[in-house]
């Protein structure tokens, strides 16, 4: 019999706990919309008590997402639960997700509580959350290292208190598949009222086993899988949504399941998340890595040409990779461009299409052939428009191997033009020094990285810059065929986000 597996996405909560990742509410909303269109059942939008920014983002998402359940995380205390409720209350489908650690090591050293105290607190707080919403999930943090009899007891108690979903996380990624599968089987067999709740799993990837553990749990009765796009998450990350979804789809013969995921939209969401978080997907990453569907060896290529199933277990199209080899160029019109955007999974308003088309035309003057990767790099930039408080007017750099680099930069800020010059250790450093003189804030440059979008000397360069001001960190992106210009645009983009 086919079983429904619920996909719970935690990119915006656990995924945002990836070191160095910080998303603003508009970016989170854009990701949430893409997740909804991908077909995820539950979107964990954040942890509202953690910060005002998180609260605002969850609220915005709950005001805009209609089809997926919107949930927010809360510790087992009334303050957290109230704050979570205040943020999710606008969503037509809402859930409060409360958690409390249940393993000996966490109870003793982190919570300084006994089993009885933890049991009482978890039960009371699920009861309290139920007064606010119908749908409550309880997570037994560090569930995989919890004494089994205690795990059964606390799950039974929270289900009695009204929890609709009980989650048994492998919080520290310590489990191995056979053991984790057995744990879920044990929960199914020993928790008396388990038929009144959905068993959920949440696996971390510290041993690289998060997806394997999730699948073993599904084989043993788990019905909800918590995962994140590109496998983002605390430390080594969570189970990657795309890998779980495609394993379930490709090996339906083993898992006889059904999910709501529209797999053709996977690649687009992965790209967007990578763009907003600044975390590049490794080329050999399963499902969404650039090499996931390329065949290098002659023997493999020959096999694929004769029958693609010789070396392909799923098609590139099935996860949304465009296999279109047609390139656009300066003679391409707006219709061809818009058509390509639709093929790539973008559904933009007319105004944004025209903005992107203008950027495309500018690029076509510098670059002969424009590929899908170039278009994605150009368009992702404008997905969440930001106000250009700082505008670049022009710049000039002199550099060489035996001279100190010097740069001049002219910007407009609040309708006032400013021009500054500075020296530096290389052209980018000189430019950034000049720019810092022209602005009245002193952000700290935390990170700078550069990559080529495609190959060739006229390739687009994409620069990411991380700036911190007080307690706010933002990621700025700049793209250009000129990497010096891309560097400056990335800095300006980050400045505008800080504003
Ligand atoms: O890893 C974990 O245990 C968690 C819980 C809060 C679900 O993220
Ligand atoms: Zn986690």
Automatic annotation (TrEMBL):
Cofactor(s) needed: Mn(2+)
Pathway participation: Amino-acid biosynthesis; L-leucine biosynthesis; L-leucine from 3-methyl-2-oxobutanoate: step 1/4
UniProt keyword annotation of Amino-acid biosynthesis present: yes
EC supergroup of this enzyme: transferase
Matching SMART domains: LeuA_dimer (SM00917)
GO CC entries: cytoplasm
Reaction catalyzed: 3-methyl-2-oxobutanoate + acetyl-CoA + H2O = (2S)-2-isopropylmalate + CoA + H(+)
Single GO biological process annotation from the record: L-leucine biosynthetic process
Keywords: Amino-acid biosynthesis, Branched-chain amino acid biosynthesis, Cytoplasm, Leucine biosynthesis, Manganese, Metal-binding, Transferase
One Pfam family cited in the UniProt record for this chain: LeuA_dimer
SUPFAM superfamilies in alphabetical order: 2-isopropylmalate synthase LeuA, allosteric (dimerisation) domain, Aldolase
Domain Pyruvate carboxyltransferase: 5-267
Gene3D superfamilies attached to this UniProt entry: 3.30.160.270, Aldolase class I
Binding site for Mn(2+): 14, 202, 204, 238
Region (Regulatory domain): 391-499
Enzyme Commission numbers on file: 2.3.3.13
UniProt GO molecular function: 2-isopropylmalate synthase activity; acetyl-CoA C-acetyltransferase activity; manganese ion binding
Chain's role: Catalyzes the condensation of the acetyl group of acetyl-CoA with 3-methyl-2-oxobutanoate (2-ketoisovalerate) to form 3-carboxy-3-hydroxy-4-methylpentanoate (2-isopropylmalate).
PANTHER family from the UniProt entry: 2-ISOPROPYLMALATE SYNTHASE 1, CHLOROPLASTIC-RELATED, HOMOCITRATE SYNTHASE-RELATED
Subunit structure: Homodimer.
NCBIfam families in alphabetical order: leuA_bact, PRK00915.1-2, PRK00915.1-3, PRK00915.1-5
Family the UniProt entry places it in: Belongs to the alpha-IPM synthase/homocitrate synthase family. LeuA type 1 subfamily.
Protein name: 2-isopropylmalate synthase
The species this protein was found in: Clostridium gasigenes
């Amino acid at each position: 019999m086919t079983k429904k597996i619920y996909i719970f996405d935690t990119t915006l909560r656990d995924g945002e706990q990836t070191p160095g990742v910080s998303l603003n509410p508009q970016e989170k909303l854009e990701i949430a919309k893409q997740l909804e269109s991908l077909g995820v059942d539950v979107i964990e939008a954040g942890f509202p008590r953690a910060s005002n920014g998180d609260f605002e983002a969850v609220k915005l998402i709950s005001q805009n997402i209609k089809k997926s359940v919107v949930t927010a995380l809360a510790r087992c205390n009334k303050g957290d639960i109230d704050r979570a409720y205040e943020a999710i209350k606008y969503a037509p489908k809402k859930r409060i997700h409360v958690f409390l650690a249940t393993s000996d090591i966490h109870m003793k050293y982190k919570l300084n509580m006994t089993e009885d105290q933890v049991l009482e607190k978890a039960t009371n707080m699920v009861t309290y959350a139920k007064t606010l919403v119908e749908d409550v999930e309880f997570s037994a943090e560090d569930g995989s290292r919890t004494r089994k009899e205690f795990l059964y007891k606390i799950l039974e108690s929270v289900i009695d208190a009204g929890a609709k979903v009980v989650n048994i996380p492998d919080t520290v990624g310590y489990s191995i598949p056979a053991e984790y599968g057995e744990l879920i089987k044990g929960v199914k067999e020993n928790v008396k009222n388990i038929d009144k709740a959905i068993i959920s799993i949440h696996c971390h990837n510290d041993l690289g086993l998060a997806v394997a553990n999730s699948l073993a749990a599904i084989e043993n009765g788990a019905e909800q899988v918590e995962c994140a796009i590109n496998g983002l998450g605390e430390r080594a990350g969570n189970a990657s949504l795309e890998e779980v979804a495609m394993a379930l789809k490709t090996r339906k013969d083993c898992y006889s399941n059904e999910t709501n995921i529209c797999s053709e939209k996977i690649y687009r969401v992965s790209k967007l998340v990578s763009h907003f978080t600044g975390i590049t997907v490794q080329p050999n990453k399963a499902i969404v890595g650039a090499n996931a569907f390329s065949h290098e060896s002659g023997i493999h290529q020959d096999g694929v040409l004769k029958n693609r199933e010789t070396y392909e277990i799923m098609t590139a199209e099935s996860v949304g990779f465009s296999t279109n080899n047609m390139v656009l160029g300066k003679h391409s019109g707006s219709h061809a461009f818009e058509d390509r955007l639709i093929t790539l999974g973008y559904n933009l308003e007319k105004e944004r299409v025209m903005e992107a088309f203008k950027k495309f035309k500018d690029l076509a003057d510098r670059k002969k052939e424009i590929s899908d990767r170039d278009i994605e790099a150009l368009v992702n930039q404008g997905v969440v428009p930001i106000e250009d408080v700082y505008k670049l007017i022009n710049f000039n750099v002199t550099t060489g191997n035996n001279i100190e680099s010097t740069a001049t930069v002219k910007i407009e800020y609040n309708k006032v033009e400013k021009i500054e010059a500075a020296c530096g250790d290389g052209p980018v450093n000189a430019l950034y020094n000049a720019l810092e003189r022209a602005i009245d804030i002193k952000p700290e440059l935390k990170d700078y990285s550069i990559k080529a979008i495609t190959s060739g000397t006229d390739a687009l360069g994409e620069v990411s810059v991380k700036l911190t001001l007080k307690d706010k960190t933002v990621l700025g992106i700049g793209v250009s065929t000129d990497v010096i210009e891309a560097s400056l645009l990335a800095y300006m983009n980050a400045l505008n986000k800080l504003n």
